[in-house]
Design a protein that fits this description.
Number of domains: 1
Radius of gyration: 18 Å
Number of strands: 9
Largest sheet: 7 strands, antiparallel
Strand order of the largest sheet: 1-6-5-4-7-9-8
CATH class: Alpha Beta
CATH topology: NADH Oxidase
Length: 252
Amino acid sequence: MINKELLNKGRNFLKDTVRLSMDMSQTDQASGVPVPPMQKSVSPAAQIITLVKPRDWDTIEPIELRSAFARRRSRRNFSDKSLTQEELSFLLWATQGVARKFGDNATFRTVPSAGARHSLETYLCVNNVSGLDKGVYRYLPLSHELVLVRPDDDIANKTATAVMGQNFVATAAVVFLWAAIPYRMEWRYGLAAHKVVALDAGHVCQNLYLACEAISSGTCAIAAYDQKAIDNLIGVDGEDEFVIYLAPVGRN
């Protein structure tokens, strides 16, 4: 039987954050604490991969918006065909691409985010993308680049294990993983931050669904995983940064 007390706690969390957001006088922003960075730093020794910029895309065909809406599905059957780096560039831009930057404090992107805080970091478990070694990467939205976190020839199987044996994940060309850095939101919204972090993840994943329809590919949102295993897989601490959502992408 469902525990009604726990259910009510969950429901109150969704309702109370609206009230909590009305009083932000105790937040770090209100106290004058400097704004947290919009993007994690990169080691000078890291391997950087330059992605094809949007203005240089040659193979991304326009798609009629109503058609993308109508065709959107959760797809779990992927072929063994690879994605191109240009297609990966498009998917990354569609989900976290920067449209406009405001100094060192804020960006407008291809997805909405509460207060333009954009608390998510995008990681990739690359299995079958032309020209990229298998392994874990992180997207750098401010420069539209990738940084190699670590190479791993067995990344597909390790990802499937971390999502509790959903083996179709191992057949994907690439898996998008979104890790939250809650403080980016907490700095402005305090206790109300955690609701809008979840909302941000929903915006990002829906854009991925629609973008996949433009390149004859598919995706399937996943929220069932072993938290410790998935955090360890991409190398985050599980406290100040942790995975909250992921989606494998592959050819139809």
